[in-house]
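Q: Entry one of two.
A:
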Amino acid sequence: MNTFMNTFTKSRISKLIIGTSLSFTMLFAAASVTLPAPSAYAATTTSTASKIISTGKQFLGVPYKFGAKTGNVSSFDCSSFTQYVYKKSGINLPRSSKQQAKAGKYVSKSQLQPGDLVFSDTNRDGVINHVSIYIGNGQLLHTYRVGIGVTISKFAGSTWDKTYVTARRVL
């Protein structure tokens, strides 16, 4: 019986040592796995957003014209403006603000980042009729009325905020 107990105890201790060793090996192996840095994607997105915003700012003051033709840079309406500046960064958007509001993925107002599209229903008739580009610091880059043209507006408390419908991330 004594030999049996010694063998049983030794076997049990061996299993405990092997199990503990395997656990530590797995722990240290998992800790050494290198995952891709999430900042690489964020840096690319930030760079693209900066390019879009920079491109859009080049058109500050360009006149507003409802129904402006796609690709025309002598006048824009809100959606031809966003379509044009995003295309310059290789991102294709549909022509109308209503169609653009279905592109990309939803983002909440509280999570807006530079480069996100912000959609409003300024007529308050339940139909999206305006799009602007969130540029950070609570500001929008857009065009919306004859006599104003492409401009930068404050978002919080503005008409665009009060008639806000949704926002989309297309980057």
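Q: Entry two of two.
A:
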Amino acid sequence: MPLDSPKYLVGLVDPETLAVAESEELHPTRIDYESCEILEIRYDFFDESEWQTLAARVRKIIPNVILLGTIRLRRDGGTFSNARAVERPALWKKILEAPDVPEWLDLERDCLHDYDELCELATPRGVKILVSEHNFTRIPSDLELKNYLTDAKRVKADGIKIAAMSNSDDDCTRLYKFAKKAKGFKLVAAFGMGETGKLSRVWSLKEGANLTYGSIGKAAAPGQIDVGLMRKAIDRLETTTSQIELSSFLNIF
């Protein structure tokens, strides 16, 4: 991914941040929303009775933002019980039947058996699909990452994401190699979680990825950096020559 190509910073929309962003135009949360190119609506955080209006509510605040819809089970770091995995097609249908829908939906890799059904629902609405994988224990091996890439290409996913727990200062290099090989996807995210994965959330954008995630309010994942600081770091990334230099910049704040 050329360094001068678009980079997308994603912030998470949850009930608390949405409520304050709607109520106060100059609230710091509203400013954080505006710092992001993409806002991820975590549908599993909201009561299902609100799903039909969520995309419209966010667009009313930030009209030109790209929306990414996500439903996470507990095994994926979400709130829905794992038993609800079988309900996912029906849940996606509920989201896609709304008058206003996200431009993207996030489907976990372990639910790829639902990909074709989701695609049939999403395509008529012009919605693209990002396939994601989360590993809260370790960064997968090169072979595991190769197999993941093969799976995503097989179903012709529009985007691909891997977020995995980093356990050393150098194990994110496997994710960077993965990002460089992820050709043909519109969105590519490949970063480490945890303390030793923090830098990768920004540096991955210099290593082939074009998508990364920051926190709005409370961090939603280990090692997440708030979007205000992420925005500053991304904006100066072109002139940042090393991870040491990036670390020094982040440490200032």
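A: Comment on entry two: The radius of gyration is 17 Å. DSSP finds ten helices and eight strands in the chain.
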